[in-house]
Amino acid sequence: MPTDPYTWLEESLATIHRADWYRSVQTIHGLPGATVVLSEQQVINFASNDYLGLAGDERLIAAAITAIKEFGTGSTGSRLLSGHRELHRELEEAIASTKQTEDSLVFSSGYLANLGTIAALVGKRDLILSDQYNHSSLKNGAILSGAAILEYPHCDIAELKTQLSQQRQNYRRCLILTDSVFSMDGDLCPLPELLDLADAFNCMLLVDEAHATGVLGKTGAGCVEHFGCTGRQLIQIGTLSKALGSLGGYVAGSSTLIDFLRNRAPSWIYTTGLSPADTAAALAAIKIVQQEPQRRVQLWRNIDYLKKLIQQHLPNLKLLPSESPILCFQLHSTTDALKAGKQLRDAGIFAPAIRPPTVPTSRIRISVMATHQTAHLEKLVAVLNSNIATTVS
Ligand SMILES: *Cc1c(COP(=O)(O)O)cnc(C)c1O
């Protein structure tokens, strides 16, 4: 018997290093934005989920400060005990109004919203069908629920239908899980087809709108609105921490669903309510999303312009299919991806390498923001051209 039960930690870290999978944090200084200071270097920021540039907006900051002065820094308890404030209700009503659902429920993060909702909806006698590329929070929510889990190939409706035909009758309830915008690829789930399959096989459907809220759809309500599926029965999850520039997560759906979750979702019941500052900032962000559609228009102008520049100047760059602000190009190996990320960084571009185990194949991931200037996008393309065109083609 070894004498130290912790020695395996070092060995395991060494394995992570050998595979080039090792990761560590990088310090950003000052306010978030289209450019940031990263370890003393000014860089153009293509690594942020702050798609509309709201995380540093003075109105969100003012709302958070006012809420702290009025309600304090902590909400002091779980929502069902002492942690519920009028602000929480206002935010939940604003989310439901944006999503055009009967009600919504705010969690302390999007991750917790997925864990708690999935675990509340299905159990041992039930089946989960999950897209292979789903976010970690959907995958771990599925495991936590104790249901049987089948993964289907990415966006493969035909294969999903086959699995449903073969397996659905063996289980009590069935829940289909999917990202709406896939977070590490940037493509969209085939939502209308998924809804039709869910109807045909008597399944619940949960879509994670984390990267779509504020970004897609005429009013910024997300992928559901983008596909004209507003009002159809489904469970929408999202986050307050991406385009909404705050922190927290939510579920939107029927009032029966929300009432049930308030009684059964452990990651909502047994955790402290969202802080007044985060709640107020998210509420301010939702108002801005509703009142300033020009931010979303500018975001899409930037996405289209960057795609056009890449097509013109970097025809060999293999962009993964994308219908969102997330643009990725694949590299041959983790070593190439790290090298490309480093070269970009040295040239003043912050666009991280995303490697296994987060994704199956290494890539550089670019997130476009509404607040990027034309010159930022042009610099990115110029740097790609002179530095890494040889690595990727
Ligand atoms: C970021 C993300 C989450 C987690 O949201 P947080 O609020 O950051 O916890 C969940 N699902 C998807 C698809 C995400 O991209």
TrEMBL record:
GO terms for biological process: biotin biosynthetic process. The modification N6-(pyridoxal phosphate)lysine is found at residue 242. Keywords: Acyltransferase, Biotin biosynthesis, Pyridoxal phosphate, Transferase. Pathway: Cofactor biosynthesis; biotin biosynthesis. Signal peptide: none annotated. Gene3D superfamilies: Aspartate Aminotransferase, domain 1 (3.90.1150.10), Type I PLP-dependent aspartate aminotransferase-like (Major domain) (3.40.640.10). Its EC number is 2.3.1.47. Residues 42-383 form the Aminotransferase class I/classII large domain. GO terms for molecular function: 8-amino-7-oxononanoate synthase activity; pyridoxal phosphate binding. It catalyses: 6-carboxyhexanoyl-[ACP] + L-alanine + H(+) = (8S)-8-amino-7-oxononanoate + holo-[ACP] + CO2. It comes from the Bacteria. Its cofactor is pyridoxal 5'-phosphate. Pfam families: Aminotran_1_2 (PF00155). It is an enzyme of class 2 (transferase). Catalyzes the decarboxylative condensation of pimeloyl-[acyl-carrier protein] and L-alanine to produce 8-amino-7-oxononanoate (AON), [acyl-carrier protein], and carbon dioxide. Homodimer. Belongs to the class-II pyridoxal-phosphate-dependent aminotransferase family. BioF subfamily. This is 8-amino-7-ketopelargonate synthase. It comes from Komarekiella delphini-convector SJRDD-AB1. The lineage of its organism: Bacteria, Bacillati, Cyanobacteriota, Cyanophyceae, Nostocales. The gene is bioF.
